[in-house]
Amino acid sequence: MKLERQKIEEALESVRPFLKEDGGDVELFGINEDTQIVQVKLLGNCHDCPLSQMTLRAGIERILMAKVPAIKRVEAVN
Description:
Strand content: 25-35%
Order of helices and strands: HEEHHE
Largest sheet: 3 strands, mixed
Distance between the termini: 27 Å
Helix content: 40-55%
CATH architecture: 2-Layer Sandwich
CATH superfamily: Fe-S cluster assembly (FSCA)
Number of strands: 3
Strand order of the largest sheet: 1-2-3
CATH topology: GMP Synthetase, Chain A, domain 3
Shape: globular
Structural class: alpha+beta
């Protein structure tokens, strides 16, 4: 199943307000169609936050996978 960039971007838009409350943000870095893995880059305070992995798994990944079911995993890149 093809991962649509626009749907992923829309899902990220729904997450951004929560990240921006704490001075952070996220951007789409890449999409691997073969593995169905989406790569994101955490920005601002999210980049160095000790809770960034929890934010990634419990927040960003959960929401993206709910809105775009073809996604198998979301990974952060530096």
